[in-house]
Design a protein that fits this description.
Layout (H helix, E strand, L loop, with lengths): L1 H18 L6 H18 L8 H21 L22 H16 L9 H26 L3
Helix pairs in contact: 2-3, 2-4, 3-5, 4-5
Length: 148
Protein backbone atom coordinates (compact mmCIF):
# COMPACT_ATOMS: atom_id res chain seq x y z
CA UNK A 1 0.00 0.00 0.00
CA UNK A 2 2.84 2.39 0.89
CA UNK A 3 4.53 1.64 -2.44
CA UNK A 4 1.28 2.36 -4.26
CA UNK A 5 0.88 5.68 -2.45
CA UNK A 6 4.45 6.76 -3.14
CA UNK A 7 4.06 5.78 -6.82
CA UNK A 8 0.87 7.81 -7.02
CA UNK A 9 2.62 10.77 -5.40
CA UNK A 10 5.47 10.58 -7.92
CA UNK A 11 3.04 10.44 -10.82
CA UNK A 12 1.16 13.47 -9.50
CA UNK A 13 4.32 15.50 -8.85
CA UNK A 14 6.09 14.70 -12.13
CA UNK A 15 4.16 17.23 -14.27
CA UNK A 16 4.82 19.97 -11.72
CA UNK A 17 8.53 19.25 -11.84
CA UNK A 18 8.54 19.28 -15.64
CA UNK A 19 6.78 22.63 -15.72
CA UNK A 20 9.90 24.28 -14.34
CA UNK A 21 12.29 22.49 -16.69
CA UNK A 22 13.54 25.01 -19.23
CA UNK A 23 13.35 22.65 -22.20
CA UNK A 24 15.39 23.08 -25.37
CA UNK A 25 14.35 26.68 -26.03
CA UNK A 26 13.89 28.51 -22.72
CA UNK A 27 14.47 31.87 -24.37
CA UNK A 28 11.52 31.33 -26.68
CA UNK A 29 8.97 31.44 -23.83
CA UNK A 30 10.56 34.58 -22.43
CA UNK A 31 10.47 36.14 -25.89
CA UNK A 32 6.81 35.20 -26.34
CA UNK A 33 5.95 36.89 -23.07
CA UNK A 34 7.91 40.01 -24.04
CA UNK A 35 6.37 40.13 -27.51
CA UNK A 36 2.83 39.75 -26.17
CA UNK A 37 3.44 42.54 -23.67
CA UNK A 38 4.92 44.80 -26.38
CA UNK A 39 1.93 44.11 -28.63
CA UNK A 40 -0.46 44.98 -25.81
CA UNK A 41 1.38 48.21 -25.03
CA UNK A 42 1.27 49.32 -28.64
CA UNK A 43 -2.37 48.35 -29.16
CA UNK A 44 -3.47 50.07 -25.97
CA UNK A 45 -1.47 53.23 -26.45
CA UNK A 46 -3.95 56.05 -26.65
CA UNK A 47 -2.62 58.42 -29.20
CA UNK A 48 -3.18 60.22 -32.41
CA UNK A 49 -3.00 59.10 -35.99
CA UNK A 50 0.47 60.50 -36.62
CA UNK A 51 2.25 57.41 -35.35
CA UNK A 52 -0.42 54.81 -36.04
CA UNK A 53 1.09 53.59 -39.33
CA UNK A 54 4.31 52.70 -37.53
CA UNK A 55 2.34 51.12 -34.69
CA UNK A 56 0.23 49.04 -37.09
CA UNK A 57 3.35 47.80 -38.90
CA UNK A 58 5.05 47.01 -35.58
CA UNK A 59 2.04 44.99 -34.38
CA UNK A 60 1.96 43.02 -37.66
CA UNK A 61 5.64 42.16 -37.28
CA UNK A 62 5.17 41.23 -33.62
CA UNK A 63 2.28 38.91 -34.49
CA UNK A 64 4.43 37.29 -37.21
CA UNK A 65 7.33 36.85 -34.76
CA UNK A 66 5.01 35.27 -32.18
CA UNK A 67 3.79 32.81 -34.80
CA UNK A 68 7.36 31.98 -35.90
CA UNK A 69 8.52 31.38 -32.33
CA UNK A 70 5.50 29.23 -31.52
CA UNK A 71 6.18 27.04 -34.55
CA UNK A 72 9.87 26.82 -33.69
CA UNK A 73 9.21 25.77 -30.11
CA UNK A 74 6.29 23.41 -30.71
CA UNK A 75 8.41 20.36 -29.82
CA UNK A 76 9.81 21.92 -26.66
CA UNK A 77 7.06 20.49 -24.47
CA UNK A 78 6.23 23.85 -22.93
CA UNK A 79 2.73 25.24 -22.62
CA UNK A 80 2.76 28.03 -25.18
CA UNK A 81 -0.50 29.34 -23.76
CA UNK A 82 1.22 30.08 -20.46
CA UNK A 83 1.38 33.85 -20.22
CA UNK A 84 3.56 34.93 -17.30
CA UNK A 85 2.38 38.05 -15.52
CA UNK A 86 3.89 41.30 -16.70
CA UNK A 87 4.58 44.48 -14.78
CA UNK A 88 1.95 47.18 -14.59
CA UNK A 89 1.82 49.13 -17.83
CA UNK A 90 3.73 52.41 -17.84
CA UNK A 91 2.12 55.78 -18.30
CA UNK A 92 0.72 56.69 -21.68
CA UNK A 93 3.92 58.48 -22.62
CA UNK A 94 6.10 55.51 -21.72
CA UNK A 95 4.29 52.73 -23.54
CA UNK A 96 6.23 52.95 -26.79
CA UNK A 97 9.53 53.15 -24.91
CA UNK A 98 8.57 50.11 -22.83
CA UNK A 99 7.47 48.25 -25.99
CA UNK A 100 10.88 49.06 -27.49
CA UNK A 101 12.63 47.64 -24.41
CA UNK A 102 10.53 44.47 -24.58
CA UNK A 103 11.32 44.02 -28.27
CA UNK A 104 15.03 44.38 -27.54
CA UNK A 105 14.76 41.76 -24.79
CA UNK A 106 12.74 39.43 -27.05
CA UNK A 107 15.42 39.72 -29.73
CA UNK A 108 18.07 38.82 -27.15
CA UNK A 109 16.01 35.85 -25.89
CA UNK A 110 15.42 34.41 -29.37
CA UNK A 111 19.02 35.01 -30.43
CA UNK A 112 20.44 32.66 -27.79
CA UNK A 113 22.73 29.90 -29.03
CA UNK A 114 20.68 27.01 -30.31
CA UNK A 115 21.98 23.68 -31.55
CA UNK A 116 18.69 22.53 -33.05
CA UNK A 117 18.92 22.87 -36.84
CA UNK A 118 15.16 22.33 -37.15
CA UNK A 119 14.51 25.74 -35.58
CA UNK A 120 17.20 27.72 -37.38
CA UNK A 121 15.10 29.11 -40.26
CA UNK A 122 12.09 29.95 -38.09
CA UNK A 123 14.39 31.57 -35.56
CA UNK A 124 16.01 33.65 -38.32
CA UNK A 125 12.60 34.79 -39.60
CA UNK A 126 11.42 35.59 -36.06
CA UNK A 127 14.52 37.71 -35.46
CA UNK A 128 13.89 39.61 -38.70
CA UNK A 129 10.27 40.26 -37.69
CA UNK A 130 11.39 41.52 -34.28
CA UNK A 131 13.92 43.82 -35.98
CA UNK A 132 11.20 45.22 -38.26
CA UNK A 133 8.90 45.77 -35.27
CA UNK A 134 11.70 47.55 -33.40
CA UNK A 135 12.36 49.77 -36.42
CA UNK A 136 8.67 50.68 -36.64
CA UNK A 137 8.50 51.51 -32.92
CA UNK A 138 11.60 53.69 -33.41
CA UNK A 139 9.73 55.47 -36.21
CA UNK A 140 6.65 55.93 -34.04
CA UNK A 141 8.79 57.36 -31.24
CA UNK A 142 10.50 59.75 -33.66
CA UNK A 143 7.18 60.89 -35.13
CA UNK A 144 5.70 61.40 -31.67
CA UNK A 145 8.74 63.39 -30.51
CA UNK A 146 8.80 65.60 -33.61
CA UNK A 147 5.07 66.22 -33.89
CA UNK A 148 4.60 64.33 -37.12
Amino acid sequence: MAALLSSAALIMLAPAALADTPGRHPGFLHALSDLRAARWLILHRPGDARVSAHEDAAVQSIVAAISDIQRASIDDGKNLDDHPATDAPPSREGRLQRAQELLTQAHHDVNQKDDDPATYELKKVALKNIQVATHEVDGALWDAAHGR
